[in-house]
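Follow-up to my post from last week.
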Amino acid sequence: MNRQAWDISIEHLCGGYDGRLVLQDFSATLPAGTVTTILGESGCGKTTLLRLLLGLNRPVSGRILIGGRDVSAMSEAQFRKMRRRFGVLFQDGALISSLTLAENVALPLVEHTGLPRKTLRDAALRTLELVGLDNFADYYPGELSGGMRKRAGLARAIVTEPPVLFCDEPTSGLDPITAAQMDQLLLDMKACYPDMTTVVVTHDLGSVEHIAEHVLVLRAGKAVFAGSRKELSTASDPYLNRFLHRKFEESRRMAAPPLDSAVRGALAEWLDD
Amino acid sequence: MNEIITPVLNLLNRMGEMALFLFEGFRQTWHSRRLPGKVLRQVYVIGAKSMFVILLIGLFTGLVLGLQAFYAMSMFGAQGMLGSLLALTLIREMAPVLTAIMIAARAGSAMTAEIGVMRISDQIDALEVMDINPVGYLVTPRLLSSLVAFPLLTSIFTVVGIFGGYLSACVLLGLNEGRYFSGIESSVTLDDVQGCCLKAAVFAVIVITVCCFQGYNAHRRSDGKGAEAVGNATTSAVVMSCVLILMADYVLTSFLL
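User reply:
Got it. Predicted complex:
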């Protein structure tokens, strides 16, 4: 597949959960071979968009074209075949809790190839080394920190060397140093696989600053900006300005404490008890 | 009228979904990779890990049956039939039913909770995007291993139950050992043993299907979300398994007798 093959076009997409539309008439293009970050406030539809792209949820209407092929016109089997070319890092890594890190990373290879165990383990160890976790290969996900689980999730996502990589909030909940390491990891990945189309859902502006080549900003289920990082920094839209400079909405300011005297009195009684 | 029809339709819908889930579970036998290793692991989880509780329940069931039957049959001077009564009761009814209920409570509940947690923590979605069929990965090995583990554990339950009956009737109450064992030998036929194995296999399919289905669909429950949904799914799985085991037992017994 050539570089151009893995661009993603979304046309008039509507989707959501249980009859509630989160994305409405959403259109955007994610260029091939670039790192696209999808930005937006919590609940604006970033993860919903990702789930629709991955085929985990079905769109109500609209089209998704991946590599020029209309996903909604594909049969289940055709889409599953295409999805083999995706690597996905879920929010908390979504590692299988009953498997060790090495087994987790090797899982796609174990299930889809007939390679001998030693070859599979070596491949898993080399990929874990890439994310700095080769010393934790025999640990279970429950024994690791959130950052380590995310890095292991990334290792599993790239072990098949996919041409398209999706990352759902790879730096959320991480300390600044670990978050920076995660960003660097994505950049290193980009250096190793220059043709890889990477889609990163985030609301971490620091990450955007470090890794984004193309930025898509969502607001209430619609795309309000699509362009380069430089274009984003010079955008004059008041919402983008507020978002980028972490300015709050005046209407959401706390005018008075939310508790009334009855609740405060009961609390005081409990605290003094 | 709607209050009656809607729950009935929902129940039928659920049953249909469960039947398709079971079908997919067996269908994946031909598509899953490295299945023997996964099945062996599940035989250990479902079978070997349930051994102690089955030994315990089997022994005490035999002890109680021996005790009760001895005094009941003494009233008619028919203690000599105790071995037959105990063995037939165990082989035809008690062993398959109690074994299945115990496994549903021990391994089935754990299965529902494990799959339910995997569902709410995106692990099943992760399997899907890796093009690993979640039913083939999670359910098929459990289904196949249960077809081995349930009959084995039922057999162990029966043997230990007969030994428990021997302890209470012969060792504690003084019944002649020869009469006890010759009664078993003369009354138990191959058909009884085959019926016992058939029941164990049917109960295995029921327990695994119900428990895996409840965990797999924990995110669709209307009575809770997240951890609460997993808890409710686990309760439903055990209750539904027990009810279906008893219902299936009645149907099977009607045909086997």
